[in-house]
Amino acid sequence: MKKISLNVMPLTQQAFAAFGDVIETDGRSHYSINNGTTERYHDLAKVDLPVQYGRLLINIFRAQPNPLPIPVKMLERHPLSSQTFIPLSDTPFLIVVAAAETDPRATDLYAFLSNGRQGVNYHRAVWHHPLLALEKTSDFVVVDLDSDAENCDEFFFDDNLQVTISALIPDDDT
Amino acid sequence: MKKISLNVMPLTQQAFAAFGDVIETDGRSHYSINNGTTERYHDLAKVDLPVQYGRLLINIFRAQPNPLPIPVKMLERHPLSSQTFIPLSDTPFLIVVAAAETDPRATDLYAFLSNGRQGVNYHRAVWHHPLLALEKTSDFVVVDLDSDAENCDEFFFDDNLQVTISALIPDDDT
């Protein structure tokens, strides 16, 4: 049995750029609308939901919390479309992605911690773990594609490989 | 000066159906995904963002709170597209819409109170007031259309008409 413990990194636009967008207001430009009563943080994600494959959906996902250590046994990806998750519960959650075009290896994995006010938009075909809520049951706005075409690949790591996340302390040096 | 005070109704799917969708989990069907760890409340809004006119945007709007009484001096509408507002701050907010295809009259106005966990999706061309946060500065996820085409009509009520919202107590009999 080979065991790997993933380090968790803070979720920043720069660190996450290869996988998608961080949807947040901190540090983002904005401009006034509605006669000065509202600030618009404009166009925070590269949404990629090709209508030739289906229809845009707005959903709410309610995710159960995960106690540590969290096993990473599989990943999924959507080859046709992006997928956006924005937290509604102001609670940190984990993001696990892989920098791989084909089958991901354990060494391709990266884990990020959202502060609970940061959402993510996975770019098309980016390998990612399903929702990993922490602390409490957490709701998320999800914007994705409803398609009759096959749009979900799954990859399961070998049973002889045990990948876990054991601690949530972001490692700024990573 | 003619004065009109709008009653505020609870925001329900049934009451709001003529104007758009209520995006909420309460009372909505759902199904399990992600190996049983997540409930998906699927397809909560009739999103209508025609790509021939532009590009889908995900934004965050930060709205300043409004003290009572709140004047309703104008409305706007987007003739080409729907527009979705989902609250991130778990704080009630007001929705003012008009049942009118052309210039709205004061008698066409309806006001609804979101409980702070309910979002709304205004259907294409529905007259609505810009964001009306209450209590505190409130953030909203906004899904709308970026278009070079003209996509915002504004209507201003006559200066001799004073429409206000003076109380937030929903009137269940309305």
Mean pLDDT of chain A: 95
The profile of the biggest β sheet of chain A is: 5 strands, mixed
Proportion in β-strands of chain A:
35-45%
Number of strands of chain A: 17
Count interface residues per chain for the largest interface: A-B, 43 and 43 residues
Oligomer: homodimer
Q: What is the ordering of alpha helices and beta strands of chain A?
A: EEHEEEEEEEEEEEEEEE
Helix content of chain A: under 10%
C-alpha end-to-end distance of chain A: 25 Å
Global outline of chain A: globular
Helix vs. strand class of chain A: mainly beta
Tell me what the structure shows.
The structure is a homodimer of 174-residue chains. Chain A is mainly β. Helices cover 2% and strands 45% of the residues of chain A. Chain A has one helix at 13-16, and strands at 2-5, 8-10, 20-23, 31-33, 38-41, 54-63, 70-71, 74-77, 83-87, 93-98, 109-114, 119-122, 127-128, 132-133, 138-147, 153-156, 161-165. In chain A, the strands form five sheets. In chain A, strands 2, 10, 11, 13 and 14 form a five-stranded mixed beta sheet that branches. A five-stranded antiparallel beta sheet of chain A has the order 3-12-9-15-6, with no helix packed on it. A three-stranded mixed beta sheet of chain A has the order 1-17-7, with no helix packed on it. In chain A, a hairpin with a 4-residue loop joins strand 4 and strand 5. The radius of gyration of chain A is 17 Å and the shape is globular. Chain A binds chain B through residues 23-25, 30, 33-35, 37-45, 47, 49, 51, 55-64, 66, 84, 86, 88, 90, 117, 121, 130-131, 139, 141-143, 146, and chain B through 23-25, 30, 33-35, 37-45, 47, 49, 51, 55-64, 66, 84, 86, 88, 90, 117, 121, 130-131, 139, 141-143, 146. Strand 6 (54-63) of chain A pairs antiparallel with strand 5 of chain B, so a sheet runs across the interface.
